[in-house]
């Protein structure tokens, strides 16, 4: 899959040579421990770097340079995984072969260099106006979760289930943390990120490996850094009592979110078995939740489960008529009970393995998916391939699925619904 | 089977129109793992008044029926079609737009078997009073889900403002009330009228051997019998040029006000190359006026009138078209004024320079090349283009020769003040 090169201590390059795509994709990931305060700093920083640098001080000059380069894409974003916070820079340009003599790929490195190594900084601080604008943008992005009732309900469920833990910390941090950012603190965050974060650089496309190594040395020469292991997953999975929380807003549909805890997480040897359990429970259109809550009872348009493996959580989401909460919770619990009692068919198992197989192989058709999947699975196995994962799924038995279902315990029932008189 | 090579893009398509009228298009992609297949009928939510197959009188069916029919295609006497796709490792889905209903799957295995499942389930309707009734609860929840999404309400509310008569103003899924009137007989009537192979297109893209796949599809279609094809007669009301409702406000529980300006397109009967030129030109004009490189954006962003939700688009189909510009904003009135002023100034003094045009041309060509990495994009867009008598692979050559005059003409189709509408979603006043 990817060919790994150690550029410096803590800085690695992963290249996948392929003629599959009409473009070349470059992704740079900076990884640091996940904390509320630094998450906000890093989110605002990612925005500031995207908007302005010393070479292209305004958004307009930067965007024009990208447009000239055949609509080259370059943007930043943040994400989290387990106890790790990542700032990513994504760039994509058209293969040089389509436009002879243009040297697009080399110009892309120059633009990345401007964004990463030529910040718009004077006297140890970023431009105040740019910072204020991006602080406001990030603050509004955090607030806007409120407008999306499904995301809001999921956020609340995680906060109730895992308060102040990585599972419920947003990759954007908090409004308060955003407000406290100063031009000096942001510059410190920048220095910290460039000099101390673990860095993974990915390149996918029709490229020459030694050329890329030379270009990285020339344009983005990151120095060596200390490799620190980010704190491992720690889960408390004892449930004393199921917490039921109901909240109301002006809305029509009831958003039912159930959180289940499990000791099986990404690094657990049974991880692949739990993926299958989740698929049969509510991961696909042939699953127990889809077939019973939606098709048989006509109670919902969506009723799904998902396995948040880095946090040891299985959760169920369904959009229902809020008056039917009790019935919905009972129906969902019945599906889990069926799994726990081994009421599972070979057909369900085979369908789930086949669809997981389809999704991992299908991910090969997008450069970004290749990068994201490898970035995650290389933690388990540097020589990860989709085929190895498929082998593991194929060896899962009905008994394994039953066993997995028995490790999960309901911890939180959360319902977000309309206020009295607004529900109809 | 006809082969067409697009040298510049390094793509090759295989096409054939079968005896029953079905158009089949196959595009093999080197290095791809997946095969993506769409089976699409030129039938969507706006096709509500038509002459049923074999009848001479126009009828009007309940709102939301095309989408309802899409849902019901998946249920058969022997169970749910998702189960069959699942066993073959295929991920299946469907969607309904204003003018199309598409059924699709993607698979890395058993591509022929899955294509057979797709062809069979779309070509063998099964509706009963009981299964139709059962679906009403599911779709009612789907409608309610969208009702709670402010951005959805903003978008469709704007379209509703723009049109007085045209059915594009009606929600694709209908309303909780309108779907109650839908019966199995309605579904059969719509099915017989619009699901004839001659009104459909099958697109296969990705890991596929074109000769084998074409032979397989031909054999399958030859074995099935269909009604004689009839030209489909749809009826659309006459639409006014002006926006129906100039302004509307919806109160929802949102964290920040939302503003959307809709501009109704005055030329709405275009098809083919003319439509392609209008569409591409209008997109370039909007990019120039409102994109990240524009003076408008610099000002709006600098003054905090827009945030990351800011967007604009141009949308055109046979019979209707519109441009939209909108954002979440603390100052909807100021933002509205700035958008209006930007349009007004463009009318007074054309803002696009030759240099701008060249830059945007390069940008759009690159964007298009990038989108050809996505087999989903290729299948869905090729079908949409074909239904509008355009060819997706004409995009680059058309962009290359697009003139400034075309941009001016396209701009004129949506820059008339009377065709504007404002839609706002505001938080409740405390």
Q: Can you give a write-up of this model?
A:
The complex is a heterodimer of chains A (424) and B (430). Chain A is α+β, with helices and mostly antiparallel strands. Chain A has 15 helices and 13 strands. In chain A, a hairpin with a 2-residue loop joins β4 (73-81) and β5 (84-94). In chain A, α1 (36-51) packs across α7 and α11 (325-340) crosses α15 (398-405). The longest helix of chain A has 17 residues, at 346-362. Chain A is globular and about 60 Å long. By secondary structure, chain B is α+β, with helices and mostly antiparallel strands. Chain B folds into two domains: 2-223, 2-Layer Sandwich (Cytochrome Bc1 Complex, Chain A, domain 1), CATH 3.30.830.10; 247-426, Metalloenzyme, LuxS/M16 peptidase-like (Cytochrome Bc1 Complex, Chain A, domain 1, 2-Layer Sandwich). Chain B contains 14 helices and 16 strands. In chain B, the strands form four sheets. Chain B has a seven-stranded mixed β-sheet with strand order 1-2-3-11-4-10-9, with helices on both faces. Chain B has a five-stranded mixed β-sheet with strand order 12-16-13-15-14, sandwiched between helices. The longest helix of chain B has 19 residues, at 129-147. The termini of chain B are far apart. The chains are: A alpha+beta (424), B alpha+beta (430).
